[in-house]
TrEMBL record:
InterPro entries: AAA+_ATPase (IPR003593), ABC_transporter-like_ATP-bd (IPR003439), ABC_transporter-like_CS (IPR017871), MacB-like_ATP-bd (IPR017911), P-loop_NTPase (IPR027417). CDD domains: ABC_MJ0796_LolCDE_FtsE (cd03255). One of its GO terms (molecular function) is ATP binding. PANTHER family: ABC TRANSPORTER DOMAIN-CONTAINING PROTEIN, LIPOPROTEIN-RELEASING SYSTEM ATP-BINDING PROTEIN LOLD. Belongs to the ABC transporter superfamily. The keyword Nucleotide-binding applies. It holds the Pfam family ABC_tran. The keyword S-adenosyl-L-methionine does not apply. Keywords: ATP-binding, Nucleotide-binding, Transport. This is ABC transporter domain-containing protein. Residues 4-228 form the ABC transporter domain.
Amino acid sequence: MELLSVQNVSKSFKDHSYTVHAVNDVSLDIHQGEMIAIIGPSGSGKTTLLNLMGIVISPDSGEVYVEGQKASGMNDTMRCRMRNQYFGYIVQDFALIEEDTAMQNILVPTLYSKHKKSSSEYRKLIYSMAEKLQVSDKLKSTVKKLSGGERQRIAIIRSMVCDQKIILADEPTGSLDKDNSTIVMKCLRELVDDFKKTVVIVTHDLNVARQCDRTFNLTGGVLTPCNL
Ligand SMILES: Nc1ncnc2c1ncn2[C@@H]1O[C@H](COP(=O)(O)OP(=O)(O)OP(=O)(O)O)[C@@H](O)[C@H]1O
Ligand SMILES: [Mg+2]
């Protein structure tokens, strides 16, 4: 069974007098342990599609299934629970709290998790991830003192601290230089290869897309497979 299945999903936004068809009849099956890239011009619907996949927003038509469970049949509480259980989200500006330490930021999703571990178990997990990503010495620093690449790695750890199976990454290397971009991509690859995570990356960077297992182009809300 697919881990995540998007079937004939469409989403429009009404903006005063006209309607934007942001995502247009998109279907995609994603299996566990895959790394998928979605490229496309600005405004082509990439973030909207990621939000539909992560059941952050609901489609106007079509269905999203997570491990065979239909998202549209659920009430808000169940959908929220499913979102927290399955999805880690990495947004472009990292959305970290500047005045808090890296560790405090990483622990935020655990506050809402249904399957809580003890505080020491979380810390052990976070330190082992941070060591892998070479930021273990930064966990006690406030975020405002961290570089862009370090912040992004902290955001990656936060996206998987509750052991979510699917990581949705919106332009994860968008504001990074080449070296940091390489480190972040290596991290995401390791999450797939070593932890069997599933990663969907939206990117403008063809080098990033080429490192993924499958690539798709989204233009005018229409998704097509592409070879880079
Ligand atoms: N909440 C909203 N209300 C109205 N229009 C929206 C909303 N969200 C997105 N849109 C419109 O839908 C279209 C797709 O937007 P989206 O953010 O998905 O594009 P994108 O491919 O992620 O672009 P970028 O590469 O610039 O991030 C755009 O025309 C955008 O203006
Ligand atoms: Mg976007």
